Amino acid sequence: MPLDTERGNGPDLVLVPGIAGPWEYVDLAVDALAAHFRVVTFSLGTASEGNDVEREAERVKAVLDARGIDRAIVCGISYGGVVATCFAAKWPARTAALVVASAPGAGWHLRPRHEVYAQWPRLFGPVFFAESPFRLRPELVAALPRRRDRLRFARWQIGTFFRRPIALPQLAARARALARHDVAADCSRVTAPTLVITGEQALDRVVPVDSTATYTRLIPGARCVVLERTGHLGTITRPAEFAALVRAFVDETGVASGFSRTTSHSEVA
To answer: What CATH code is carried by the domain that includes residue 247?
Structure first.
């Protein structure tokens, strides 16, 4: 399986995936964004490469360097939003805009039982996965009211899991690193136009909406919008609507005018 991918035409956008790691888990969002942007995405690092937020931010820079992209819209989903914010803080000149979707904010911490899961991921990982469908069901029903659509989404998720299994120790290492990272310090150094996207308060049972909303308070001028009928998974349950919010933000802020060219996948070796 490729560790990165590129799709679409238009302003350059790098998409940082969530805590699971492989970019394939946000493939539906990649496709939707590719209708508006040249999207580059990649899989998070392995244990040997390091699983902390700052190393992942350096990986974003390496991906842009490899593609010859000087400046991009940096978009992160959940854990990837923390990484994207870290990148924007460290390399402001290379960040045309920042988009943070359902990301843990300043002061976020693992729930007590998840701290236990993170300490012994091989033992408790199956328990975490077993409880996830029950935790996410209200959101899925709201985002995908028709049962056949929920079944199609479930088949896609299961297929992705079998093609790119989640490495439980790496997921746990990222969760522990996230709890240690100083998100507020990164936010204080962000200068790029910023869009914060959340789901609905009652539907996000993974990261509290109030936690994601702290980015709006800590980043000067940041905007916050709600992706309706979604919780934590809105970027992949309602990907077209997610992409439309990002496109509208880019158009309203004039970010797209800062790109002197567009590049298609066929132009990149």
So the answer is: 3.40.50.1820
Give dist(CA 268, CA 89) in Å, integer.
Answer: 28
What's the structural domain count of the chain? 1
pTM, rounded to two decimals: 0.90
* Of the candidates 98, 83, 94, the residue with the CA atom closest to the CA atom of residue 219: 98
> In one letter, which amino acid is 138?
P
149-204: per-residue pLDDT in tens?
999 999 999 999 999 998 888 888 888 888 889 999 999 999 999 999 999 999 99
Report the 10 Å Cβ neighbour count for 197: 26
DSSP 120-147: SHHHHHHHHHHHHHHHHHHHHHHH--SH
Instruction: Tell me the residue ranges of DSSP E strands in 122-215.
Output: 194-198
- What proportions of the chain, in percent to the nearest 5, are helix, strand and coil? 55, 15, 30
Three-class DSSP category at 100:
strand
116-121, long-range: CB within 8 Å, 24+ apart, which pairs?
A: 117/172, 118/172, 118/175, 118/176, 119/172, 121/168, 121/169, 121/171, 121/172
Query: Which range of residues forms the domain containing residue 68?
Result: 4-267
Evaluate if residue 252 carries a pLDDT over 60. Answer: yes
Residue 41, phi then psi, degrees to nearest 5:
-140, 170
Torsion sign across C-alpha atoms 232, 137, 241, 153:
positive
**Cα gap 215→198, rounded to integer Å:** 11
